[in-house]
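Worked example 2:
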Amino acid sequence: MNLPGGLSYWPSEVTRDGQPVPVLERDGHPAIRLEPGPATISGRFGWSELPQQIKLPPEIGLLELTVNGAVQSAPSWERDGTLWLQRKASSEPVDEDFLSLKVHSLLEDGIPLWFETRLDLIVAGKSREETIGSVLPEGWQLAAIDSALPVAIDDSGLLKAQIRAGRWTISLRAFHYGEAARIAFAEGASPPTSDQVLAFRTNPGFRQAEIVGLPQIDVAQTQAPEEWRSLSVYRWETVGGFELTERVRGPGERGTSPLAIQRT
């Protein structure tokens, strides 16, 4: 696990649950070895005067900062992990806590079915933990998460994130084996937004299928990811669901029609 600091400011007296642990150097960053499980890590920095800034590992999500006895309600913490300890006071008021969410999803036909969700976050205010909402339709299994922010998702598909000021993207991929004629969130689930843009990628070599129950919309009127903009897109009001209806099975399962040629 990486620790705050760097070659210029190296942590000392580092402990895990009160027991000393050696600090290693990894790619120019201080780090310690940890076994799986919860742990409390403590350490100290020694300097003749307070530096302007210090680096924090990007996997850190929540931060409480006190400088010279004064609690910093909104630390200046940049996306690359730079934490400013000294910076001229701004006359601008501190931003209030704010979170804006946009959700785009992609359904990919095949065996298995794949469902990708991208959440675009705009965050202001202090670092904090937020419950984002239910991000997996009922019956789908999580395969992967890609996020610069620390996140956790439970068995029901409820996503929580440790957020801080900035613009962030969280991407998730889930799969479903077998028939999924109807796709919807579980009863009582709380999706992040009341509606989202859904793109559908067909698989003509497998079958011809279509989405039923959602209005198709003009992709130019959306902010769908560039690589999805050639696909059919729909507006999904997440309080309800939709159907994935098969029209024609692929050539491999349709069989072939007999052909007879007679010369006269």
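Residues 252-258 have pLDDT under 50 and may be disordered. The chain has two domains: 12-84, 99-249.
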